[in-house]
Write a structure and sequence with these properties.
The chain folds into three domains: 4-47, no CATH class; 61-158 and 294-324, 3-Layer(aba) Sandwich (Rossmann fold); 160-292, Response regulator (Rossmann fold), CATH 3.40.50. Helix 4 links the parallel strand 1 and strand 2. It has a six-stranded parallel β-sheet with strand order 2-1-3-4-5-11, sandwiched between helices. The protein has a six-stranded mixed β-sheet with strand order 7-6-8-9-10-12, with helices on both faces. The chain is α/β, with parallel strands linked by helices. It is built from 13 helices and twelve strands. It starts with a helix and ends in a 6-residue tail after the last strand. Helix 1 packs across helix 2 and helix 10 crosses helix 11.
Length: 333
């Protein structure tokens, strides 16, 4: 791989002069600048985005890799993007957000060219193809989301299994025996969204222990399918007295659906869900819910990543789950 020493030799200048040209820290003559630019061009040197901080070999930039699926509900993902960006800014780092369709190539590109000091991955799936190139990179990485293999990486996520048990126990304590669960869309399960089946399997197991009939259905993530699917699910289970919604798009649409059906919560139907406080305020959601904690997850990921950047010998990788907290807003009875 071509480096600064190669550029300096081809341009007939010192390495420090090339560094100054790249970082802009000191003025250099036009002629020298042109020789350096020509050498960079001829050698195919990839300019380090962190050249302004060559003395420490740090760019003060974190890569944020996001996989935007066409069928996802964007407001949910934006919560995590904002959380990571805010946490990075508080620690003096900028964010380079990368949304390439082919994530492994994006990881290799931004790490091999030293564009970033570390990488945060969002929307992590069970067998995430971005993990291997991240493990091979010089820079450390942190994940928001639990993959199958966590080796060598810091991982942070909500404890979705415990969240499901907490919700089912809550409804069991209120006497509910027939409960609907609206899960993320089928394609989320199929592409490896482990959070979806971690919640669903734990809910089914807990319901069976309590001798509860739990009717699990896939929801939708885009209109007009969202409201149509919620209506169809409710119609299919008229005996149900409670509704668990683990689907951001469905819970955002639920107040309008229930209002149109004339269903009063919790008199006619108890409702409990998972979403963040900010998400609830955005969509005016009045439901009892587990806090999904995007702010805490983003902060933990960035804090650990920055510590690994600044302290290379900082301990072994961690896998940390945020404990779910249920906020009772009076929507269950």
């Amino acid at each position: 791989m071509v480096n600064i020493a190669d550029v300096a030799k081809a341009a007939g200048v010192s390495r420090s002069t090339v560094s100054y040209a790249l970082s802009g820290n000191r003025p250099i003559s036009r002629e020298t600048r042109e020789r350096i630019d020509l050498a960079i061009s001829e050698l195919g040197f990839t300019v380090n985005a962190g050249a302004r901080a060559l003395a420490t070999a740090q760019t003060m930039v974190l890569g944020l890799l996001v996989q935007f699926e066409d069928d996802e509900f964007p407001p949910a993902m934006l919560q995590y993007i904002l959380a990571v960006s805010t946490a990075a800014r508080e620690l003096g780092y900028d964010i380079l957000m990368v949304t390439d369709d082919h994530g492994p190539d994006a990881v290799r590109r931004i790490t091999s060219s030293n564009m970033v000091d570390g990488v945060v991955l969002l929307d992590v799936v069970h067998d995430d193809p971005r993990l291997q190139p991240l493990r091979e990179a010089r820079q450390p990485g942190a994940l928001v989301g639990l993959p199958r293999d966590t080796e060598g990486l810091d991982v942070f996520d909500l404890d979705f299994g415990e969240a499901a048990r907490l919700i089912v126990d809550h409804l069991h304590g209120l006497g509910h025996r027939d409960i609907i669960l609206v899960s993320p869309p089928r394609h989320v399960f199929e592409r490896g969204g482990a959070y979806a089946w971690r919640f669903r399997e734990a809910a089914l197991e807990r319901a069976a222990r309590h001798d509860i009939h739990l009717y699990a259905h896939y929801g939708e993530s885009q209109q007009p399918g969202i409201e149509r699917s919620v209506n169809a699910i409710i119609d299919a289970r008229p005996q149900a007295t409670a509704l668990i919604v683990h689907n951001d798009a469905s819970i955002a649409a639920l107040p309008a659906v229930l209002r149109e059906r004339g269903i009063a919560v919790p008199r006619d139907l108890s409702v409990v869900s998972l979403y963040s406080r900010d998400f609830g305020r955005t969509f005016l959601l009045p439901y009892t819910a587990v806090e999904t904690s995007p702010d805490e997850l983003g902060r933990l990921a960035v804090q650990h990543l920055v510590r690994r950047i600044t302290e290379p010998d900082y301990g072994p990788p961690v896998v940390r789950f945020v404990e779910p907290q249920l906020t009772d807003r009076g929507s269950t009875a």
